[in-house]
Design a protein that fits this description.
The protein has 469 residues and is an alpha/beta fold. It folds into 2 domains: 255 residues, Alpha-Beta Complex (Spore Coat Polysaccharide Biosynthesis Protein SpsA, Chain A), CATH 3.90.550.10; 173 residues, no CATH class. Helix content is 47%, strand content 12%. Helix 6 links the parallel strand 9 and strand 10. Helix 1 packs across helix 8, helix 1 packs antiparallel against helix 11 and helix 2 packs across helix 8.
Length: 469
């Protein structure tokens, strides 16, 4: 089934990813004069996706270095961030500020989401008083160009993705210990916070931002005071892209892409592309800036194991020739057949799901998808061997997944609507084939049950037998 080609694809892709990642190393300047501005992000522990956000933060900070940002890169890290992660950030030229987690007084709210429990650590950005301006960032931003003009903005500036509520994935602030202390006081007294997270708190703290003028950087480079709305081009919601499959943001430079989507569809996951067309953009930034050296050994080990499984099952596959079975179904075999159908159904499901969950989640999609297909093929071959199933019936879903990937990754759709219709049409045509293959698989189990019943001596001695050749 072309498993050797799959191995060569994985090895070649892994080599290319590692090589380009190594070339993308960013070396911090030594002995540079203190800078007045900073790009800052935060990092904390306690979520199921800590490692993914750590990787995303490193990629974003390195991409800022490659864009020659004339500012320090700072990570506000909680004290429980692993020392090796802190050291890796420092090796990237990032300044790490260690802080204690701010207690979230809103975690008892009815609508509170626990994944936002520590997002109030973002308020520490106001304590970075060694800088005149700070651009505070979430880790799911992709920078398309240098945005140093943001440091000319006022004491607080943010983008309105939602028509009425600004987004805190990127905002500009003027550090002030007085403001920081006031914010801590507001937390202590329980200031109104609709979502219990940083966005709800800041929207409550700066309620009049919607009425403020739009930011336009002065040509003479002077800094503005007051509060301003930032053009949408500084926080281009990825969902805007999916409608037309291109950017058409009229207000402001198209500088930064953000992904305020469901947690499991953040762009750093290997399955994000081609499900979400922009997922590959983030991985390209990682390939250029950080590489995949931490995941490639695991990918290669899994690939070798899967190919070993395929080789063993091919050699050990029993022949169906010269097997005898009884044409008549005994009552005891009816129960066995029903039980066997359930076991086979769950086994096929496991063959397609287990590889998905054991692949390193932040690996490049061009490594993740071939590894998934190789893994599901190898586990399916085990199911085929154990239950003597027709290979094509079991692998129909496998071929259907490959087709889905090609349909979704086709690069010449006119817009997102046409792409969605094409995926729907493909699924509509493919579903009957998958169902027919499942029915054929279940019906073929009767041969296995009758053969085993004969071996156990269940049929009477006068029964008629038939040979399969």
């Amino acid at each position: 089934m072309g498993w050797s080609v799959g191995l060569w694809w994985l090895v070649a892709a892994a080599w290319a990813v590692a090589a380009v990642g190594a070339e993308g190393e960013v070396v911090a300047a030594v002995g540079a004069a203190p800078r007045r501005h900073a790009y800052a992000a935060m990092m904390y522990m306690g979520t199921p996706r800590d490692y993914e956000f750590y990787v995303a933060t490193r990629v974003m900070m390195r991409s800022l270095g490659r864009l020659s940002a004339s500012a320090d890169r700072v990570v506000i890290a909680s004290l429980d961030v692993p020392p090796r992660w802190v050291q890796a950030l420092k090796d990237d030229g990032v300044k790490v500020v260690s802080v204690e987690n701010l207690k979230n007084p809103y975690e008892k709210q009815e609508n509170f989401n626990m994944r936002f429990k520590l997002t109030l650590n973002k308020l520490y950005a106001w304590s970075l008083v060694s800088y005149e301006r700070v651009v505070m960032l979430d880790s799911d931003n992709i920078f398309l160009q240098n945005t140093d003009e943001l440091f000319q903005c006022g004491r607080f500036c943010a983008v309105f993705i939602n028509p009425c509520i600004f987004h805190t994935g990127l905002f500009v602030l003027k550090p002030s210990m007085d403001v920081f202390k006031k914010m801590l006081h507001e937390l202590a007294v329980g200031r109104e916070n609709p979502d219990g997270a940083d966005q709800g708190f800041l929207a409550s703290y700066f309620p009049d931002l919607l009425d403020q003028p739009m930011f336009h950087p002065p040509a003479n480079g002077t800094k503005l005071e007051g509060t301003y709305r930032l053009p949408l081009g500084y926080q281009m919601d990825a969902s805007y892209y999916y409608l037309k499959l291109c950017w058409s943001i009229p207000c402001g430079p198209n500088s930064v892409i953000t992904f305020p989507s469901a947690p499991w569809f953040k762009p750093w996951y290997w399955w994000s592309w081609p499900v979400l067309p922009l997922g590959l953009s983030w991985h390209e930034q990682r390939r250029e800036n950080l590489g995949y050296s931490s995941e490639i050994p695991v990918v290669l080990i899994q690939a070798v194991l899967y190919i070993g499984v395929i080789a063993v099952t091919r050699l050990a596959r029993p022949s169906l020739s010269k097997m005898c079975y009884n044409r008549r179904m005994e009552k005891s075999t009816m129960f066995l057949l029903s039980l066997l159908r359930v076991v086979v159904a769950w086994s096929i499901l496991a063959a397609y799901t287990i590889p998905f969950f054991i692949i390193p989640r932040t690996v490049h999609p061009l490594l993740g998808w071939p590894l998934y297909l190789l893994g599901s093929f190898s586990l399916s071959s085990i199911v085929i061997n154990i239950f003597l199933l027709h290979p094509i019936s079991v692998l129909t879903t496998w071929f259907g997944i490959i087709g889905t990937l090609f349909v979704m990754s086709f690069p010449w759709y006119l817009n997102g609507v046409v792409r969605a219709l094409a995926v729907f049409a493909y699924a509509f045509c493919c579903a009957p084939l998958v169902w027919a293959s499942l029915v054929k698989t279940m019906s073929s189990l009767q041969v296995l049950v009758e053969r085993d019943a004969f071996r156990l001596g269940e049929p009477n001695q006068n029964a008629e037998f038939t040979k399969l050749y």
